[in-house]
Amino acid sequence: MRIRFLLFLSVLFLLQSCGSKKGIVNKKNPGVVIVEPEPVELPSVNQKEIIKKLERKNPNLNKYTLAYIKKYAPIAVKEMHEYKIPASITLAQGILESGKGRSELALKSNNHFGIKCHKGWEGERVYHDDDEKGECFRKYLYPETSYNDHSLFLTRRKRYAFLFDYNIKDYKKWAYGLRKAGYATDKKYPVKLLKLIKDYHLYEFDKVKKGKYTKRIKDLNDGETFTKPIVIEKKASNLHTVKKGETLYSISRKYGISVKLIKRINSLSSNTISIGQQLIIKR
């Protein structure tokens, strides 16, 4: 009887252990596929020249912050042109929220803005301790997707709508407006953003004009521009069953999408497919 009781306790302990680990693994909705397009090359926004001037003027500036600006300034400018969010604000937020790109969330999950899962998020997720223990954060394949998601986060929520009444070059109003709208709980959040913008001359990126820059992106990438993540539900209407004689090329022609996209959606490393294989198709 005693042995049975001990066995029962052992099984109960194992079940509790398994249950407690469920909250710290990566998760995603198995019924949904979120495809992040491979980022295209972006043209320079004179970030190297700006950084050189800064280093000559003040050699004690943080090297990780400078490296972050050099790498991500073009993305912030592109987002500015598309969503009317000052590049200086986006960059300052990225630097601050990601710990200059060196936080665990940025390094392992490409989440540069600390965006949590929130209701309706169907992509991959990770769990980190923040305001509360084991909070759910979004995980991205590319930093570019994180930047785009940050833009969508601000443009699709009513509480941030008043920000877009401000002049795109008025980064001061934007900094205080973000705090007013509840983006951060830290009372010094606007001051921290403004210090980064002023110390590292991030306002210079707000001056990059759209027309020539957009054209240079297309010239660099043969007309291709960075597109937003694609969300595809795994349902019958989005599935194609491979028939005899079909190739990825013939299937791509049938549905009017590229072979590259079909391979990316279905995680195919080669063009080899087999009869009866089901492929997810974006129609």
TrEMBL record:
<dbReference type="InterPro" id="IPR051056">
    <property type="entry name" value="Glycosyl_Hydrolase_73"/>
</dbReference>
<keyword id="KW-0378">Hydrolase</keyword>
<protein>
    <recommendedName>
        <fullName>Peptidoglycan hydrolase</fullName>
    </recommendedName>
</protein>
<dbReference type="InterPro" id="IPR002901">
    <property type="entry name" value="MGlyc_endo_b_GlcNAc-like_dom"/>
</dbReference>
<keyword id="KW-0081">Bacteriolytic enzyme</keyword>
<keyword id="KW-0929">Antimicrobial</keyword>
<dbReference type="InterPro" id="IPR036779">
    <property type="entry name" value="LysM_dom_sf"/>
</dbReference>
<dbReference type="GO" id="GO:0004040">
    <property type="term" value="F:amidase activity"/>
</dbReference>
<dbReference type="InterPro" id="IPR018392">
    <property type="entry name" value="LysM"/>
</dbReference>
<dbReference type="GO" id="GO:0031640">
    <property type="term" value="P:killing of cells of another organism"/>
</dbReference>
<dbReference type="Pfam" id="PF01476">
    <property type="entry name" value="LysM"/>
</dbReference>
<dbReference type="GO" id="GO:0042742">
    <property type="term" value="P:defense response to bacterium"/>
</dbReference>
<feature type="domain" description="LysM">
    <location>
        <begin position="238"/>
        <end position="281"/>
    </location>
</feature>
<dbReference type="Pfam" id="PF01832">
    <property type="entry name" value="Glucosaminidase"/>
</dbReference>
